[in-house]
Amino acid sequence: MGTPITLFTGQWGNRTFLELIQLAKKIGLNGLELACWGSPDAHFDVHKALNDKDYVVNIVRTLRDHELDVWAIGAHLVSQCVCDKYIDERHQGILPEHVYGDGNPEGVRQRAAEEMIITVKAASKLADVVGHPITVNIFTGSSIWHMFYAFPPLPPDAIENGYKDFATRWLPILDACKQCGNVRLALEVHPGEIAFDTLSAKKALQAVGNHPCFWFNYDPSHLDWQGVDYIGFIYELGDRIAHVHMKDVWVRETPGPCSILGGHLDFGDYHRAWDFKSIGFGGIKFMEVITALKTIGYPGPWSIEWEHQGMDPEWGVIDSYNRLTEMDYATSTQKFDETFERK
Fold this sequence. Notes:
By secondary structure, this protein is of the alpha/beta class. It contains 13 helices and ten strands.
């Protein structure tokens, strides 16, 4: 068997768990990365996982009946609110009512942190049933993202205080992972988070004292449009990559009317300087990504996070799966020129 290829269900919130199971089986995928949201029901409901003794067993049985597995769940929406400084109608649109509550920012942050500990415990129960560790892919939010451009001039220690706030809020959640023993958190390095490039990822890791349960969900698309060396990230932080999202991005090669910051334009607007794409329709050098991942010995799945405005989603996922399977290759510890030597 080659590298397991999965589908992140986060962008498929209008489809049920069973519908996505059938889609994955039809394509030939090896599993699903289950989002902790969806409509009408979450693809992985953390409260049902803890309170209904049959829920996780039935989830896993259904996956296995279709020859599918699960290595990760996505908790990006709630986790975003653990550290965000400004809580507003944007957050209300992505949060469960019991987490958003009255919208008081500090109350939202605290309830989001409590929900993440519940998520960790639910993931641990899932890990017990599937028989291997589960990665919880997250965002962290950030109390300092709005300071990415240093004007007005930043107060002394403003950035350091942001990392301290991150550590204070996330260490109890990370300790809950450690107590479970079969769950780890993986921050998707991404604009808007405490870590958005290689250097800030290292700083975040340092802020939590290299906690054994703090890892990264690698997605080259979020790095490339920022001008970050997305291959270098693998070699510099490969020992902390717990999970991988495969998604492409197109970046304009010549000056245009819109800055790299996005110009408040919707995805798909032709004025944009960059846009997410289906694999092979952007500029990510996936063969180099795959080679780097194999070189560092990354053992996990490649999860297709499909986003491409104007393309049929099923067609896009099938095409992405086919492209990835064509690029996958078996590894070997033998040096290619060993056989030149005389014995």
